[in-house]
Every structure is written in structure tokens, then in C-alpha cells.
UniProtKB/TrEMBL annotation:
Annotated ranges, domain Tryptophan synthase beta chain-like PALP: 97-398
Organism from which the protein derives: Marinilactibacillus piezotolerans
One GO process term, biological-process aspect: isoleucine biosynthetic process
GO molecular function: D-serine ammonia-lyase activity; hydro-lyase activity; pyridoxal phosphate binding
Primary gene name: dsdA
Catalysed reaction equations from the record: D-serine = pyruvate + NH4(+)
Family named by the database record: Belongs to the serine/threonine dehydratase family. DsdA subfamily.
Protein name, as recorded: Probable D-serine dehydratase
Length: 454
């Protein structure tokens, strides 16, 4: 980190100057385009989402056998939405501003198998890889076969000769580790410095090889990639470049169409939908956003949320350097309470792709994460891990900030807000052990008592 570097970027942009000073910001994306136009700039389309959905359907009979907790959903990995009126009331009070419309929470913290949004992307990528090699080697005759065969000894023995590796701040490792080892693969997880002890213990108890790195996420991924690439029998789930992770996540966004219909929630020109997504490397918010855009077009507004210490997507988009800049180059980084978002450098693949689809982004201080965590628990009896609460600040960031108001004005949304639906995407938490929960709750409660207002 060199000082002249910091100066170079902060002179270029007022926003980068604010980010570099650790302020909470709201950013109105200057490249945001109508969905139809944005769709012309990308090679992905609704066909890719349908292909991913069909693959997940093919694997459902196997998932149902391998993970009995998916019995009820017939092997489909999906989550509910719940309305959170008591939390909305508290947010309104603390911000001195009423959010019109309704506030909902998307419960990816309750996703089966790994209890985080990673279950969408990572499990999809591992399944796709398993399917690809099983077809190549003639073990699976065609995609018409009943995929229950993946639970047979023959398939497990076949995968037991192969490796899967991944670099992670923790949660991606849990999803890849659980799915990969269930199929029979030898799984190696490279954990960055943030990774919580319980995640390492948990994976080891499932027979996964865990390598602990003293370095940040970008470096742990790099080391994992080098080790995996040296072994021709090893497949690397690459969070920095993975198309498959992205496609797995898109399904979650697209499925919202039916889920909202089933709840009687209208989304159209006069009933806008705002979705707030916690963002680390950018894979999950990008995939979900792409799916939402294919489902709702210009009637959905997707906004990503990052920690003030690691606003890697904001920095990548604002500087237009994408993955060629790290937050360390503007003097940020270090440890954040939102460990699931502790990514210093965004994904080049998704940052470039999503450029025109994201409406906006914002950043939150560690103390804000802690307060949201405690108050959600206090008001709604829902415990989320710190990263997962980031979306809850979204509606007020949008309504209160100058940049947010500017976005609403430009897009003719000001008169429609009373008919709006806001969804905060809760990205994880159900697997956090009790003693860790206690610590987060106590810290959150203490910060909340010190600070009356935002
Ligand atoms: C990984 C993660 C995110 C962000 O997903 P990215 O693909 O890294 O942007 C958000 N919340 C939780 C709990 C996560 O584990």
C-alpha cells in the first residue's frame, strides 16, 4: 500500500475519497441501464437460468436421498420469505423516516445443507462437475437417467479417486465441502484468516481436509488455486472467476417470480421491488440480480451492500478497474465483523457483467452490522450471522441519502413507494453454534445501547 497510490484514486473520484475515509456511503450507479439494453451486453440469458434449474431438478432425487433434511422439499434447495414489520418499525424510528411499502426477509439463512446463500452457487457447481465427469466417463449414460444413482457405491468409488478444492472465508468451503464429500470426492478447503474455528472443526468432522492460511481471502484463493492446478485430478471451485457459481445463484433470483406470486405480492410498473443483497466477491448478489432482472425486468431494483472496510465491488465499479484494484490500495482492509463479506478484491467476471444491472450500492460500518444483528433478533427472534444483516439497512439508505433520492427521482419511483416491496436477502446464520451466537448478540446489544440513532 503506497500513499501516492491512495492519492491517485481519491483525486479521481469524490466517492473513492469518501470510501477511503471509512464513511458509510450510498452510490447511485451511473452505468445502470434498462434491462433490455443490459441484456444485449451479456452472453448470458434466461436459457442459462433454465438450464441450471433443469440440472437442479435432475439432481433432486439424489439430493433427497443424500440429505434427508430436503425430504419435505423433494430435494429442492429453497427458502421462504417472511414479513418483518417489527423490525421495520424499529428501523423507521431509529432513522426518523418511514419506509412506505412492505419489508420482507428472504431466509437463505435457513437453506438446507449449508445454511447460507452459498448452498445455491456452490452446490450447483459441484453437481455440475460431478455430472460432467460421470457423463464423460460413461458412468452416467444420459441426462435422462434417474440421478438417484449418484448415491450408489459405484459412483462414490468413482468420485473417491478425484479431488475438489476451494479457497474461502468459510461459508463457500462449507457448501463445497458438504456436497463434495457426500458425493465421495476428496475435498480440500483453503481457509483465509477470517475463517471461524467452528467452520474448520465442522468440515474436519465431515472428513474434509482444511488448510489454514494466515492471509486474506484473495491470497488464500491464489494458494489454493496453485495447489489444485498442480494436480490434474483436482477441480478448483474458483470464487474469483466461476461461471458455474454465478449460474447457480441466478436460479434463486428467478424463482422469486413464483414465490412472490404465491404470496400475492404484485411487481409491476406501479409496484416496484427493491432487493438488498450482501456482497463479498460479488458472485451471489450478481447471480441473484441477473435472475431477478430476467424475472421482473425494470420493475426490480437490485442494490448491493458491503462493509466499509471491504467495499471491493464499489471500488471496482467506481474506478472501472474491476478486479485489478484491491481495497488495500486505498488504505482499507483488515478484519471486519462481517466475515462472509471480507473480500478485498471483487470478481472480474461478475463485476464487468453486472455493471449495467446493479441499481446502486452502499457500505456499512461494523457497528451497524452489530446493531442490525441484535435488533433483528430482539424484534423478530431471527438470528443471522453478521454478513447476512447488511440488506436490512437498505431501504433507509435509499430513502435518506441524497444519492438514493436521486435514483428514485431519475427512475420515476417517488410516487410509487407506498406500493413498493422491499426484500432484504438474509444470506446465512442457521449453522452458527450457540456460543458464537451469544457473543454476537451481546456485542450487538452493547453497541445498540450506546448509540441511539444511526
Ligand atoms: C459469501 C457470502 C455473501 C456474499 O456472497 P459473494 O458471492 O461473496 O458476494 C453474503 N453473505 C454470506 C453469509 C456469505 O457467506
Amino acid at each position: 500500500m503506497l500513499d501516492h497510490h491512495v492519492g491517485k484514486f481519491t483525486e479521481q473520484s469524490q466517492l473513492i475519497k469518501e470510501i477511503a475515509s471509512g464513511l458509510e456511503v450510498f452510490w447511485d450507479n451511473p452505468s445502470y441501464s434498462p434491462a433490455e439494453e443490459a441484456n444485449r451486453y451479456t452472453k448470458y440469458s434466461i436459457k442459462d437460468i433454465e438450464d441450471a434449474e433443469e440440472r437442479l431438478q435432475r439432481f433432486a432425487p439424489y439430493i433427497k436421498i443424500a440429505f434427508p433434511e430436503t425430504e419435505e422439499s423433494n430435494g429442492i434447495i429453497e427458502s421462504e420469505i417472511i414479513e418483518i414489520t417489527a423490525m421495520k418499525k424499529w428501523l423507521n424510528e431509529i432513522n426518523d423516516k418511514n419506509v412506505e411499502g412492505n419489508l420482507w426477509l428472504k431466509r437463505d439463512d435457513m437453506l438446507p445443507i449449508s445454511g447460507t446463500i452459498k448452498a445455491r452457487g456452490a452446490i450447483y457447481e459441484v453437481l455440475k462437475h460431478a455430472e460432467t465427469i460421470a457423463l464423460e466417463q460413461g458412468l452416467l449414460k444420459s441426462i435422462e437417467e434417474d440421478y438417484s444413482v449418484f448415491s450408489s457405491k459405484e459412483f462414490r468409488d468413482f468420485f473417491a479417486k478425484r479431488h475438489i478444492a476451494v479457497g474461502t472465508t468459510g461459508n463457500l468451503g462449507i457448501s463445497v465441502g458438504r456436497m463434495g464429500s457426500k458425493l465421495g470426492f476428496n475435498v480440500t478447503v483453503h481457509m483465509s484468516v477470517e475463517a471461524k474455528q467452528w467452520k474448520k472443526d465442522y468440515l474436519r468432522s465431515k472428513g474434509v481436509r482444511v488448510i489454514e492460511h494466515e492471509t486474506n481471502f484473495s491470497k488464500a484463493v491464489e494458494q489454493g488455486r496453485v495447489e489444485s492446478n498442480a494436480n490434474p485430478n483436482s477441480y478448483f471451485v474458483d470464487d474469483e472467476h466461476s461461471e458455474e457459481l454465478f449460474l447457480g445463484y441466478t436460479v434463486g433470483g428467478y424463482r422469486m417470480k413464483k414465490q412472490l406470486e404465491d404470496k400475492g405480492i404484485i411487481v409491476d410498473e406501479n409496484h416496484p421491488l427493491f432487493v438488498y443483497l450482501p456482497c463479498g466477491i460479488g458472485g451471489s448478489p450478481s447471480g441473484i440480480t441477473f435472475g431477478l432482472k430476467q424475472a421482473f425486468g425494470d420493475n426490480v431494483h437490485c442494490i448491493f451492500a458491503e462493509p466499509t472496510k471491504m467495499p471491493s465491488m464499489l471500488l471496482g465499479l467506481e474506478s472501472k478497474l474491476y478486479d485489478e484494484i484491491s481495497v488495500e490500495e486505498i488504505g482499507l482492509g483488515g478484519i471486519t465483523v462481517a466475515d462472509g463479506l471480507a473480500v478485498p478484491r471483487t470478481s472480474g467476471l461478475v463485476a464487468k457483467l453486472m455493471h449495467n444491472y446493479f441499481s446502486a450500492g452502499y457500505s456499512l460500518k461494523d457497528e451497524t452490522f452489530r446493531r442490525l444483528l441484535w435488533n433483528l433478533y430482539d424484534k423478530e427472534s431471527v438470528f443471522l450471522e453478521p454478513a447476512a444483516v447488511a440488506g436490512l439497512a437498505g431501504p433507509h439508505k435509499l430513502l435518506v441519502s441524497k444519492e438514493g433520492q436521486n435514483y428514485l427521482k431519475k427512475n420515476n419511483l417517488e410516487n410509487k413507494l407506498h406500493q413498493a416491496t422491499h426484500i432484504a436477502w438474509a444470506t446465512g446464520g442457521s449453522m452458527v453454534p450457540d456460543d458464537n451466537r451469544e457473543v454476537f448478540l451481546e456485542e450487538g446489544k452493547a453497541v445498540s445501547e450506546q448509540l441511539a440513532k444511526f
